[in-house]
Design goal:
Blueprint (H helix, E strand, L loop, with lengths): L7 E2 L23 E6 L11 E6 L3 E9 L10 H8 L4 E5 L11 H16 L8 E13 L1 H10 L15 E5 L27 E6 L18 H7 L4 E6 L15 H9 L7 H20 L7 H7 L8 E8 L1
Parallel strand pairs: 4-5, 4-6, 6-7, 7-8, 8-9
Antiparallel strand pairs: 1-10, 2-3, 3-5, 9-10
Helix pairs in contact: 1-6, 2-3
């Protein structure tokens, strides 16, 4: 056991407002999440260090493989992960590199290495009696990490290729395809006119991601969430947290260099980050729970689409295109 360390849019009909408290996905769930850090020196030898947040109660849970943004520590999303995990998910976030992304598509190859390790290596690093259901494997990521999630699903990994090729869904949080040619994958993910994926996609963008705090925006309009949503095939959903910035999904006070990036590099919203995190987490939980229960068209997720005011953060540009 690892050491515990801390297509067409659906017509939307207005429904009577429900408070966020009446939608449990925006509150902590019934499970008790525990953070687990797994280093490459661990006996199970993961290819990259991992930050895992897992329920502690006995059971089998879907797995979310979440890739951090550029130069951000995987544990800088701990509060978001705890929210999601409390609803019955195992969240795994690999630290693919130490500071700056490697050149070319090496980052996607590293992501594939981690993915291929999961069937043999993950079990020994989870709490006792907790099982990972890799038949329900979700790709996710923030910023550049969202791009890596799309790239992995689009078979950009070549050394090695991904053995687990049957992903169930993808949730991208303010994905960015690159702020310039030097930061794009080769070829750029957005050079694909259509993402030919066989599973549903949810893209959550930010209203202030395209606002430059200094010389360049952290999520420029030329490569932002809208571009990823446009290229995705139905079923797909889109949300924008209007009053929040690119880094507001991170912890309130992330450690080390992540704090500098979080507070100084990108435009931030004025509201509490908790509202941003619970909105992102709640949307992800509703999307995945309804998907896995076969109720994506009529469940809690559809309630959020039909009445976005139920979310803790203000949502705009909400769209849900079914297959």
């Amino acid at each position: 056991m690892a050491a515990v360390v801390e297509t067409k849019p659906v017509p939307v009909e207005a429904k009577p407002n429900e408070s966020a408290a009446e939608l449990p996905v925006f509150n902590l769930g019934s499970h008790t999440p525990t953070p687990i850090t797994v280093e490459t020196s661990n006996v199970s030898s993961p290819p990259k260090s991992l930050f895992i947040v897992s329920p502690t109660e006995q059971g089998s849970y879907p797995v979310i493989l979440f890739f951090p943004g550029t130069s951000i520590s995987n544990n800088a999303y701990s509060q978001l992960f705890q929210h999601i995990s409390s609803h019955g998910f195992i969240v795994i976030s690999p630290q693919l590199y130490s500071f700056m992304p490697p050149s070319g598509n090496k980052e996607v190859d590293l992501a594939a290495q981690v993915t291929n390790w999961l069937p043999e290596g993950l079990k020994s690093n989870l709490p006792e009696n907790v099982e990972a259901d890799l038949n329900k494997l979700v790709l996710s990521g923030h910023s550049r990490g969202g791009t890596i999630a799309f790239a992995l699903s689009l078979a950009y990994a070549t050394n090695p290729e991904t053995r687990l090729d049957q992903f169930s869904a993808l949730v991208a949080v303010d994905p960015v395809g690159g702020t310039n040619k030097c930061t794009e994958l080769n070829p750029s993910v957005l050079s694909n006119n259509t993402f030919d994926l066989s599973f549903p996609v949810t893209v959550i963008g930010t209203g202030l991601g395209g606002v430059a705090k200094y010389m360049i925006a952290c999520a420029p309009e030329s490569a932002n969430h809208e571009k990823f949503y446009e290229r995705s095939k139905a079923p797909k959903a889109h949300f924008v947290t209007k009053e929040y910035g690119h880094m507001d999904v991170l912890d309130d006070s992330p450690s080390n260099f992540s704090w500098v990036i979080s507070k100084c590099m990108c435009a931030n919203g004025k509201g509490p980050r908790e509202a941003m995190r619970t909105t992102v987490g709640g949307i992800a939980v509703a999307f995945l729970k309804d998907l896995f229960s076969g109720n994506l068209k009529n469940g809690v997720f559809t309630k959020i689409v039909q009445d976005p005011s139920v979310a803790p953060a203000l949502l705009e540009d909400v769209d849900f295109a079914q297959a």
